[in-house]
């Protein structure tokens, strides 16, 4: 179901969280298909090792690594500024990075840490790269969500509160925001050649997603993952299908799981709400007049 012969020769792809786990597998798969791949994460040492391994395994030497900390809006802006200055095109953006079990605190930007790492940082990254994606069209945006989004709740007056949500609740809220952001992207760029789709990696083995959890809850969660999880290599293939399959060229605004179109959250079809999310997100990340192409 996930196999595709699609090639990406001459194309440029960015994969966030590309130094390990699902992101690494996705980057490796895109590299096999001939893409110039930029892997991004906040750990420079892991990035170098991942880049070297992808180059060695795939034979594709056109692999770059760049530091990106989604928990810092300054880091996101530095990353996008450098990318826009140095890359002539951007054909695929895989927003894979995310975290579970982060501490319940505000970042240096005054935002809820989990919401920023899982959503606000990615919103800013994507927003600032959209002109390059549009100029490179046809291009694709692939956003990672999770089944938890179905129990998510977005209250724009309180989505950055500390002490208000459990670990699961704030993760669910952040993933719902990602899903609705994708829906709004697909509507705004419907006729531009830029597509935006989401994927649910389900439960995946051998990733770092549980690293921030502690004690019994981590042990129970790990046991569950080991029993029912799918191999990370399979998820890498799923992402590659969305990124490279010719049949996906004109498909946008859809949600995928196991390489099949899946039932999306009902709010994805509420245009008034996704518009509110777009506007509220721009305000939260402080889009400046110089950055605001959406006028």
Give your account of this protein's structure.
There is one protein chain. With 295 residues, this protein is of the alpha/beta class. 43% of the residues lie in helices and 13% in strands. It is built from 8 helices and 8 strands. It has an 8-stranded mixed sheet with strand order 3-2-1-4-5-6-7-8, sandwiched between helices. α4 (113-135) links the parallel β4 (92-95) and β5. α1 (21-32) runs parallel beside α2, α4 (113-135) packs parallel to α5 (167-188) and α5 (167-188) packs across α8. The longest helix is centred in the middle third of the chain and has 23 residues, at 113-135. It is globular, with a radius of gyration of 18 Å. The N and C termini lie far apart (41 Å). Mean pLDDT is 91; it is low at 215-228.
Main pleated-sheet profile: 8 strands, mixed
What is the overall shape? globular
Binned strand content: 5-15%
User: What is the count of helical runs?
Assistant: 8
For the largest sheet, list the strands in their spatial order: 3-2-1-4-5-6-7-8
Question: Total number of β-strand segments?
Answer: 8
Oligomer: single chain
Q: Kindly, what is the distance between the CA atoms of the first and last residues, rounded to a whole number of angstroms?
A: 41 Å
Q: Could you tell me the mean pLDDT?
A: 91
SSE order: EHEHEHEHEHEHHEEH
Pick out the low-confidence regions.
215-228
> C-alpha Rg, in Å?
18 Å
Q: What portion of residues is helical?
A: 40-55%
Structural class: alpha/beta
